[in-house]
Structures are given as C-alpha cells and as structure tokens.
Amino acid sequence: MIKILVADDHAIVREGLKGIISTTIDLQVTAEAETGQEVFDLIAKDEFDVILLDISLPGRNGLEILKQLKNEVPDMPVLILSVYPEEQYAVRAIKAGAAGYLSKAGAPDELVKAIRRVAWGKKYISASVAEELALEMETGFEKLPHEKLSDREFEIMQRIAGGSTVSKIAQDMLLSVKTISTYRSRILKKMNIKTNADMTLYAVKHGLIE
After folding, report:
1. What is the DSSP letter of 141?
2. For residue 87, what pLDDT band results from cuts at 50, 70 and 90?
3. 17, 111 in Cβ contact below 8 A?
4. CATH class of the 145-205 domain in this structure
5. What are phi and psi of 9, to 5 degrees?
C-alpha cells in the first residue's frame, strides 16, 4: 500500500484527491495538511511514501516547502500539484527536487499514474517539461526575463502583476515592506522594466497570471 500525505489548503480539493485515490486498491491517503507547518509536523511523527504538495499553500511558497522537505527527508518523493500550467512552475519545481509536477486540471488517471511512478522512485515529467529542461542545458540558450528570477522573486512578481500591493504581499509572506520593496527593485532590474504596469503586461502576455 502506497501511503500518501495530501497538502492543500482547500478542503474541496483534498476531498477530490481522496475520492480519486480511493478508487484504487494500492493507494491510500493517510494524512492531510493545510499548511507547510502541518506537513513538517506530520512527517515528524509518521511515515509516508509520497507527498502531494500544492504549490500555493498559505504563508510559504510551495517551492520553499519543497526545498526544506528535500533537506529533511531527501528520499521522500514529492509530487507538486498546481492550478498553474507547466510552463510557469514545472521546471523550477523539478530543479528544486520535485519528483513530478501535475496541473490540477489534469485527468484523474494521470494523477494515479504519477503517484505510482514517483512512489517507485522514478520521475513524472511530461514531454514539454523534458524539452524545457533540455533547452536549459544547451550552451547559449537565452532565458526569458522572468526565467532569470529566483523562486522568491518569481512569486513576488506574480503577486505584484496580479494586483497585490507591497504591504499586502509583505503581510501574506510574513516579510517586511522594505524587504518586498527591495525584491521589487531587483525584479524590475532583472526584467528590464520600469513599473508595476509593465510587470502586469509582461505577465499577461506570457500567461504567468490567471
């Protein structure tokens, strides 16, 4: 039996995932978490074969949680779930140590297939993500401006582009307004743009916000 920890802050999503998994005889959701802290509390007192991790948990970015998980339980397969399409986060997630990346819009049988694959110690990577990873390895491959951002910078860029204020982002991410403002300045410089409006236009053009 493959024991699964589901980490998602939406109860409806967790119930949906459990419903899909309950149709199998070899998979079982044995614990649920709504926050990153709950994930670490659960892995400290129980054992799991796979963690299904939402990339948008409250408080901390899913990629940060993923990196800490790989430090604390390096052999634990982590399958990232997201409402965002692959081109936004998949390569970042795989490079951070994820065993695979799935869109929540994917088919139920794809989820089951992915869980089994990563539980067996393999990666679950789509053809498009494999192509992106291969391109990054090519000498002279020119990254798009947003691909030059760190994971934290990318998250803040998305939030600003989506209309969040610096003070709201600071509150949500438990950081100071000054820190977020510093990140904003770095983002503008790296992306060679000047205003929040430029950031929003870029994000919409490249499908980085909904």
Report:
1. P
2. low
3. yes
4. mainly alpha
5. -85, 0
